[in-house]
Each structure stands twice: as structure tokens, then as C-alpha cells.
Amino acid sequence: MKKFIISLFLGISTMLHAQNTISGTITNSANTPIPGVSIILSELNKGTTTDENGKYSFSNLPNKTLKINFSLIGYGTQNITVNGEKRENRLDIILEEMIFEMDEVIVSTAFNKIQSQNVMKVEHESIKKLQRKGTATLIEGLATIPGVSQVSTGTSIGKPVIRGLSGNRVLVYSQGVRIENQQFGDEHGLGLNDAGVESVEVIKGPASLLYGSDALGGVLYFNPERFANVNTVKANFSQKYFSNTSGRNTSIGLKTSTDSWKFITRGSYNTHSDYQIAGGDRVTNTRYNETDFKTGIGYNNSKFSTIFRYNYNKLDLGITENGIDEQTTNKKTAYPAQGISNHLLSVNSVIFLKDSKIDLDLGYIANDRSEFEDSDQAALQMKLKTFNYNVKYHFPKAGKIETIVGVQGMHQTNKNSGEEYLIPDAVTTDFGAFGTANYEWNANVLQAGLRFDNRNISTDANGIAGQEGSFEAIDKSFDSFNASLGYKTSLTADLTMRLNLASGFRAPNLAELTSNGVHEGTNRYEIGNSDLKTEQNFQTDVNLEYNNSHFEFFVNGFYNHINNYIYTSPTGAAIDDNLVFKYIQDNANLYGGEIGLHLHPHPLDWLHYETSFETVTARKKSQNGGSVYLPLIPANNWENTIRTEFKIKKWLEDGFATLNISSTFNQKNISMFETKSNGYTLINLGLGGTIKIMKTVFELNINANNLFDKRYIAHLSRLKNDGLANIGRNIVLGLNFTL
Fold first, then answer.
1. Same domain, 564 and 429
2. Spatial separation of the C-alpha atoms in residues 608 and 603, rounded to whole Å
3. How many Å apart are CA 394 and CA 352, to the nearest integer?
4. Taking the model in full, what pTM does it have?
5. Which is more confidently placed, 453 or 116?
6. Could you tell me if 609 and 645 are in contact, meaning their C-beta atoms sit under 8 angstroms apart?
7. Residues contacting residue 381 through CB under 8 Å, at least 6 positions apart
8. Are residues 68 and 143 in the same domain?
């Protein structure tokens, strides 16, 4: 079967004219060939690895400058720019041995450089590394990254928080497309599954220059799973078991590539019962089921590269109403429940010109969100359809200056088909234009950019004026200019400094403009404000990094000032015993940062010690002119991890064992609608590696999270007000077979 698939793809490819080639040999400093080096041409979504003699080759390449990334664990990453104008190009590389993590290419920033060359500090984590922590969901894994937290509702729903900002202030990208899925709602998660995702990049701070509205607080950028290496077929099957929820996660995938064509497909199913708190009680109807399917096909030649991807995600979520009630491991959701289906189609293309190129990203998202109160007839149903585009032109490089200009936009419609309305039927249109330039000299990099955006929101009237659920028609337009300036320099050979100044903005969302009813889970009547202005912020970021062969240290600091911060405030009135709150605006300030180190002592090459601490303080002006704390600000957190790496003869490779101590401190800096939260410490263990038994090869992960079954309530848990604790001890077993 594998030979047939390869032959089919090769047959199609030979009908197309072959173009330029690049080949070479990868060696270490002792001139010894290095097998297994990963070599990626990201613009072409093309990859290969070196053979046992350290050799590699690519064919059918464009007649232009290309960026090639060389990486292997234990060696320093290199990102090389090659002028591919020759018919045959030879590129031999020497990789230097390095103890620490590989230096990854950052896709979410404008110029796609490796992190060590990047002006902006971006956190990059592979999904494989997050999964090794035994987390049950994608957002739970993200919350282990310094500066990232989650607002959770049990184990099924998690909303990302970046340095104290969440909801519509954090933008999520997948397959190169911004995700739009009614993210203003509290009872609504990412709608993304980690199966078929290669890695995530986290921009902590305003990224409106590249992404427009809603990137005021930061961006989560998910990179899809890579295609197979050239002229290979690869299949894999993975299975996970979660003791706490009697949960199972199954995933199977297949991918293949030739010089020009590539194909990938993956399906997964995730099912969980109600989660257990410490002591054994289950929180009723926190069960959920998730189905996810991803596929993609791509083609490249000497003129262009294009990738079409499709992702279908379906969620069936139980919503707890009575807390600890019926005790069961049933996985069929009870009422109330929520059903969400999401279709995401994307086309990502690169058109190669003589000395420049055009990046084109097109996306279409159809999101259907339904809520069921006591029957299979949806009381609330919202259908959101979004088309977005992003076009960037990369000018020919002028000396040491790289320049990009682009336009970006979105057309979105929201339709209600249920009896209840949270927001009205509406049409939202975005348009933005930007330019950015990158200048490098010696050990310095300077990057600057400017952008203009317009967002128009028009809604339909609904209901009888003055009654709950009624909306007046509005037609609003919001404009914003934003700029960024970044500087990176090497103070010494081992010490790097980054300084970034950037502004961002967020137009008010439909709920803030139009709300007229009781907000679910808060027991308060919320009234929108059609006179709200655009939130506008300005943030200063400083990053210092020191690293040598056995020691890494970093410190990140930020100060974020937000004009016209939108929040709810009590009016003093009540409707049907529910206090009335109205959306108003005031200025707010957030400040804090992260600090950490990674120690790899010599000669204990198998031992790693990692520690990090993160803190955020957030205040806004009060109505009497004083200062009060913002809600939903994560408590200070201190992570300590001891990790060992080992190999046992020929049957265990890439072995690891981890001990993690996660300490969350008291949160006493609370808003007027919150209660204080006590601190807690969780102990987590992990063990695994790649096992070879004769011809069978598989990866094994065993995790024990919250090992001592600690009872705790996270400050950002939406079940906190009901006194419901977070998940107790959870033993996770994971197997991954490559076929």
C-alpha cells in the first residue's frame, strides 16, 4: 500500500518539470556526519532528514532565495538563507553541539526568523512536549507556559488568559486563520483539539500590527502538523487513558509527500465522564465528548506553493447545574448541555516572484453554537459564519533591510435561530492595512511598523423595546492607528536584550454593545452600551536572556496601559431579583512579568532543573476616582521541575522522568465581585520514552498529576462561587505507535 501511494504521487510529479536542487552534507565540529537532522523549507511545507552519511537533497525548488532550517536535539539550530538561482546548489552545514532546546522558526511574527534572531520574545512549545505533561485538554497544556493561564469551567471548558487579559482580548489562530467562535461567551472554550497540531506560539502583548482588533492582549498561534518528509509515507496511532474521568483519547493519522504533492489526514475522538475532586466525589454533568477531523493537501513547484486544509470539530458538553449530585461514570451528557460544531477551511499560498514573494491566507469558518436546557430542542442557537483574508507582499531585500506590506480583513454574519437571544443578528466587517520593516546590523536588529484598521458593526432590531432579550438596531464604525517598535541586541556573546514598544486595540464586541438580559452563571442582569469606544493600549516589554552550555536565565517585564477598558458596573437597580449591571469604560493598568532559569550541570548530562515565577497586577479607576483591582487576574505562580533524560541499552531511547512542583499563591487582589482564593501546591510526576521491542516501536507516557489528591479551588475557576473544587488525582497513560 505504501509503495502504491508513493508511486502514484511520483507519477504525477514526473509529469511536472523539475527545477533547481539543493543538496549537501551535515557534520559536527569534528567533521563527523550527523544522521537524522531535520531540514525544513517552511515556505514550501517541505522537509527531509539526513541519511546515515549526513547527506540530504531537495529538488523541484523555485529559482529564488529560500530559508532553510536545520535542527536536531543536542545541536544548535541554524536558519540559512540560500540564493537558489543556480540549477544545482550545494550547502554543507556544520552543527555545533548544544545542551538546551532547539531554536525554532517563529511563524507568528512577520519575518519568520528563529527565536534567537527574533526582535519580539515569543514562547514556542511543541504539542508533544505539552502532552508529556499529561494534560487532558489543549488549553490545560497551554496554561503550563509562563504568562499563560485559563478561566476554566470544570475540565471541559477553558479560555486562555495572557498576562491577565482574556476573552476577546486574546486572539487565536489555527491553520493561518483567525478563529471566530463566539469567544465572548464565558461557557465556551477554544474549540480546538491538540491532535494534528505541531506546536503553539504565544505572543504576550499587543499584536495588533499583524492581527488587527482583538489582539490587544496577545495571540495564540497554532501551527498545524507537518506533512511527511519528501517521498515517504507515515502513519501513527495514539491512545490515552485518564483515570480521574475514565476518559479516553484516540487518534489515528496518515501522511505522505513527494517533491511536489503532499497529503495528510487525522481523526480523533475524546470522551470523558464527570471529573472527580479530592476525596472521590464527582461534579455532576461535567462530562464531554469531542470529535475532531483534520485533512490537508498541498502542491508546490518553481512558481508557487499552496496548502488547502480542513478541520471539523464537534463538542458535546455537559453543564453542571447541581454541583455534586448523581454519581456516575456515564459519558452521555445530561441537560443542560451545549453542542458546538466548527468547520474551518483554509488556503495558504506563497507566490514566488523574481526577488520577492506574496503570502496569501484565506479562511472560512462556520460555527454553530447551541444550548439545550431540558430537551434536545435548542433554546439558544447562534450560527456564525466568517470569511477572512490576509495578503502580504515581501519586497526585495534592500541591503540589510526587509520590508513587508499587507492588507487584512474579515466579513462575518451572526444569525439566531433559537428562542433565546444572547446577541442580535449582526454583520461585522474588518479592513486593515499595514507595513513593517526589519533592519539588521552586526549583533543588532531594529523592527518597526504602522497599521490602520476599521471595523464596522451593524445589527438588526429584535423584540419589544424595554423587554428582556430586545435589541435596538445599531450601526457603528471603529477606527484605530497602531504602531510598534522593537530592538534586539547582544550585550555580550551570551546575553541578549529585547525592548518592544507596541500599541493595540479592541473594538467593543456585540455583547458589550447590545446585552439586555440575565447573564448565565452570574445571576445579574447586564445591559449593553452602544456608546462604547474602542479599547486602546500601549505596552512596554523588556526581555533579558543569558545562556551558555549549561545555564539559561531569562527575565521578562511588562507595563500595559489600556484606555477605555470595558467592564460591568452596578447601577443600583434590580430586575426580577437580579442586580442590574451596565457596561462602562475607564482606564486600566497591568504590570508584572516572568522570571526563570534552566540549569544543566556538568558533568551530570542527564539532569535538568527548571524553575519559573510569574506575576500580574491589574488595576482600573473606580467610579469615585480611586483604584480597584480588575477581575479574573491569575494568582502568582511558581513552577519547579526536575527532569532526567536517559537511555537503556537498545530498547529505550529518549527516556525521561520528571518531578514538577507547582505552587500557586494566595490571590487577595480581587475585584468587588470576587472572593479571595487560597494558595495551593500540586505535585506532578512523569515518565516515558521511545520503546523498541524487536520491530515494534512506540512511545510511552505515564503521568500522575495532583499526585497527593490535593483539594483546591483555582482563582480562575468559574465553579469557584459554588464551592466546587478542581480535579483531583489523575493518572494518565499514553501510547503512540508509528506504523
1. yes
2. 12
3. 10
4. 0.91
5. 453
6. no
7. 368, 369, 370, 371, 416, 417, 418
8. no
